[in-house]
Every structure is written in structure tokens, then in C-alpha cells.
Amino acid sequence: xxxxxxxxxxEVRYLDGNSAQGTKVATFTLATSERYRxxxxxxxxxxxxxxxxxxxxxxDVCEKFxxxxxxxxxxxxxxxxxxxxSTGAKKYTTExxxxxxxxxxxxxxxxxxxxxxxxxxxxxxxxxxxxxxxYQAPRPAAPAQAAPxxxxxxxxxxxxxxxxxxxxxxx
Length: 171
Prior knowledge:
Blueprint: E1 2-6, E2 11-14, E3 24-37, E4 43-55, H1 56-65, E5 70-84, E6 90-106
Parallel strand pairs: 4-6
Antiparallel strand pairs: 1-3, 1-5, 2-3, 3-4, 5-6
């Protein structure tokens, strides 16, 4: 899963050469950045560039709406392949094959000539895919307030210490 900005306009090709029947594939680069503070407290930024390959419907979306600077959310799979360059040396490249692509908007938000065609995609404000609910500590139960005690009338108990009891105690 990546969220980043497109580095160059997508290059769209058709396999089998025929645009009506061929399979559409779009390739472009995506930049992802991470910001952090180093040991000295200075803000640092590290940018990674990813090679993206989109097929069929995803390639169609890229052709119509994606331009340099567009912010994208991409889900995909890593694929490493090898090829031989013009000097005969064997080279390796790692690409991300798109499974899911979502347009998030443009980095600069400007109205320049490279923006999406009129009547096309209108960027929406980016929203996180998942937001963890805020933690709320359980509230302690309020102490039970005792009901006001009923007025108790005190009655004197008459105890006869001579052996005879005049009280009416049950024990």
C-alpha cells in the first residue's frame, strides 16, 4: 500500500499493437516521502521512487485522469524481473503491479495545463482509509448517595438489674 505523488505522466501502451483489441498497460513513477527528526532534532525527508505498472481498467483510469503531481493511493504486488540492456548486461528491476488505485487529488492543487480534462476527475480531500477510534477511559461509577435516613425515634430501654426484666427485648 502506497500513498504518493506521480513523478511523470503515465506512458500508456497497447500490447499486440492494436488499440481496439490489445491489452492496455500504463507505466509511471510514484514518489513516497517520509519525514522524521534526526538525533539533532533537525527535520529530515527521505523520498523513495517506485516504478508502477497498471493494467486494463487501472491503465484506463491512469490514461484519463493521472498526470504528473497527482496524489494516488495504490495497492499492489511487488514484481522483480530481469532484462538485458543495450550493452548486453543483465539488469534487474522491481515494479509494483497495481491491484487497486484511488485518486486522492493533486499535490499543488493548481489550475495549470497539466490538470485533468474539463468535466473529468475533481479531486476530493484526502481521508484516511482507517481511523482508530479515540480512547476514552471508563468513567468511575459515581458513589451511591445514601438516601436520607428516616428519622428514628429513640426510646429509652428500661432495664431492671434486680433479676426481673421489664424490657421488651426479644433476646
